[in-house]
Amino acid sequence: MKTFDQLAVIGLREWINLPELGMVGLRGKIDTGASTSTLHASDIQPFDRDGEPWVRFTAHFGTQVQRRHPCEAPLVTVKSIKSSNGHIQTRYVIRTLLALGDRAWSVEFTLACRKTMRYRVLLGSKALVDGQLVVNPALTYVQDKPQLSLPSGAQ
């Protein structure tokens, strides 16, 4: 059997931070069936800053007590996402730093309404590949809670 020593193991759910957005203590659900990661957002408004496209939105997190957090981020693109039931939705895409355990790396997130979903953040397969992670779906919260401050060497 092959082993992958350079890859970190994570569980089906993990604590994450999005430090560039000022968001800590998010419960993320790992979704290997999704290519792109998703962040629950509302009030999404594109705008220009110094001639560059940006997006302003309200991020939502917390499971028992809902918290709203105003955010702004450079807009990467707008893409069409096809759900598992075949529904196509146009979504704004941002790129921001994700901290999970002792690692931090840049991840693309689509912004979408997830108010009916238990988890406000989904981590898709592209984020897992870029973070050099493997998933053991029998485990949850394997990694320690990440710190808000940026780890040394984070990009």
UniProtKB/TrEMBL annotation:
Q: Which organism is it from?
A: Aquipseudomonas campi
The residue ranges of the Retropepsin-like aspartic endopeptidase domain are: 9-146
Superkingdom as given in the UniProt entry: Bacteria
Q: Which InterPro entries match?
A: Asp_endopeptidase, Peptidase_aspartic_dom_sf
What keywords were assigned to this record? Answer: Hydrolase, Protease
A Gene Ontology annotation in the biological process aspect, one of them, is:
proteolysis
Q: Which Pfam families match?
A: Zn_protease
- Annotated protein name in UniProt: ATP-dependent zinc protease
Gene Ontology molecular functions: peptidase activity
